[in-house]
């Protein structure tokens, strides 16, 4: 296996970053292989720019039916390449499967319960698909490796999300934070906490919710310094109350988050970017299934906010990350001192901090 193509035609930031563990697993299984990625829109080029094993990132135009000549021209160029392996990591995507069938590959791997009409040389039953979007394609590879190659050896852990920021990028990120936030008093602990207060549709928490959350958070952790990450539309979601950083460049945004002690965000692409930038991240979920999208690795966790007030949510975050935040203020609520309250049962870290 020397020429590998990942067929994932999707333009969303989160779905693109969720592919990074798959790259790590392919590198582990097929050392020395060259990997191409078929995506949609320009985001994948930014995400995978520092991946040494990734040669070509083919970015189909978004809404390709509006650009038929560019769309078909790119597909025909890719079809000229004979791949050793084409991986369709999706579960139930007709578009991804159609492209996998169209392109040329000696072996084609994907999820399917219909071996005859799947267009795959090596179908993997859908029952083998894990719920988590980042871990699902890993299990696809491991199941196939065990059942088709007869090799039962697998890694004990799942690779984490990682956009592989360079040392130079991280240094630039730290420099930006140093310019935006005043230096703390000598000898005082002043953790840097990033807030991203945007998301799509029902996943977005209203401004009043965030105001209550941050007020409670600051009361319990007054030494923390807050930095807002500004959404793509270029407007503060927190009323310009805190210093803000804006960049339309994904890797620059990740580099700044990498210099923080903790990121707090709703379920969105920036949540995955924070995790992939190697900063402990709290992902807050109110409508989507955390078992599918929850952040994992390096102390990251999910927080189910359904049924919680914003103040309750802040209390749980501070309690869980007390050591990281260097908390000096007591939790001034009855719930915080109630020995009967089970914080895991209340919804924080339902997947565990060790994932």
Describe the structure.
Strands 3-2-1-4-5-6 form a 6-stranded parallel β-sheet, with helices on both faces. The radius of gyration is 22 Å and the shape is elongated. The protein has 355 residues and is an alpha/beta fold. Helix 3 (43-47) links the parallel strand 2 (34-40) and strand 3. The protein has 15 helices and 12 strands. Helix content is 35%, strand content 17%. It has helices at residues 13-17, 20-29, 43-47, 68-79, 94-102, 136-147, 167-180, 207-220, 250-258, 269-276, 290-293, 310-320, 322-325, 334-337, 343-346, and strands at residues 3-7, 34-40, 54-60, 83-88, 105-111, 122-124, 192-196, 225-229, 244-245, 262-266, 281-285, 301-304.
Strand content: 15-25%
Q: What is the oligomer described by this structure?
A: single chain
The residue fraction in helices comes out at 25-40%
Biggest sheet layout = 6 strands, parallel
Poorly predicted regions: 328-355
> What is the strand tally?
12
The outline comes out as elongated
Structural class of the secondary elements? alpha/beta
List the helices and strands and how they pair.
Layout: E1 3-7, H1 13-17, H2 20-29, E2 34-40, H3 43-47, E3 54-60, H4 68-79, E4 83-88, H5 94-102, E5 105-111, E6 122-124, H6 136-147, H7 167-180, E7 192-196, H8 207-220, E8 225-229, E9 244-245, H9 250-258, E10 262-266, H10 269-276, E11 281-285, H11 290-293, E12 301-304, H12 310-320, H13 322-325, H14 334-337, H15 343-346
């Amino acid at each position: 296996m020397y020429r590998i193509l990942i067929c994932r035609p999707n333009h969303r930031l989160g779905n693109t970053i969720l592919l990074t563990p798959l790259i790590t697993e392919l590198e582990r299984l097929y050392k020395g292989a060259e990997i191409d990625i078929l995506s949609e829109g320009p985001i994948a080029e930014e995400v995978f720019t520092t991946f040494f094993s990734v040669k070509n990132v083919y970015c189909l135009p978004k809404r390709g039916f509006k650009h038929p000549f560019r769309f078909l021209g790119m597909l025909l160029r890719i079809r000229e390449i004979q791949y050793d392996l084409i991986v369709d990591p999706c579960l139930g995507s007709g578009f991804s499967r159609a492209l996998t069938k169209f392109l040329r590959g000696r072996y084609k791997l994907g999820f399917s319960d219909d071996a005859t009409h799947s267009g795959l040389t090596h179908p993997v039953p859908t029952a083998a698909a894990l719920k988590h979007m980042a871990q699902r394609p890993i299990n696809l590879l491991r199941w196939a490796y065990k059942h088709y190659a007869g090799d039962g050896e697998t890694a004990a852990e799942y690779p984490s999300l990682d956009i592989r920021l360079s040392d130079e990028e991280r240094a630039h990120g730290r420099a930006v934070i140093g310019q935006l936030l005043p230096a703390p008093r000598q000898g005082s602990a002043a953790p840097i906490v990033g807030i991203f207060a945007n998301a799509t549709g029902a996943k977005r928490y209203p401004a009043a919710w965030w105001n209550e959350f941050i007020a409670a958070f600051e009361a319990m952790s007054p030494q923390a310094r807050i930095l807002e990450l500004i959404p793509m539309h270029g407007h503060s979601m927190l009323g310009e109350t805190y210093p803000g950083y804006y960049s339309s460049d994904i890797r620059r945004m990740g580099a700044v988050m990498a210099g923080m002690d903790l990121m707090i965000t709703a379920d969105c692409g920036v949540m995955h970017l924070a995790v992939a930038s190697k900063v402990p991240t709290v992902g807050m979920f109110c409508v989507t299934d955390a078992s599918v999208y929850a952040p994992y690795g390096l102390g990251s966790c999910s927080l189910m906010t359904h049924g919680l007030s914003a103040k309750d949510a802040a209390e749980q975050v501070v309690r869980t990350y007390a050591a990281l935040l260097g908390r000096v203020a007591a939790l001034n609520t009855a719930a915080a001192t109630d020995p009967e309250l089970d914080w895991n049962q209340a919804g924080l870290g339902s997947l565990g901090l060790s994932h």
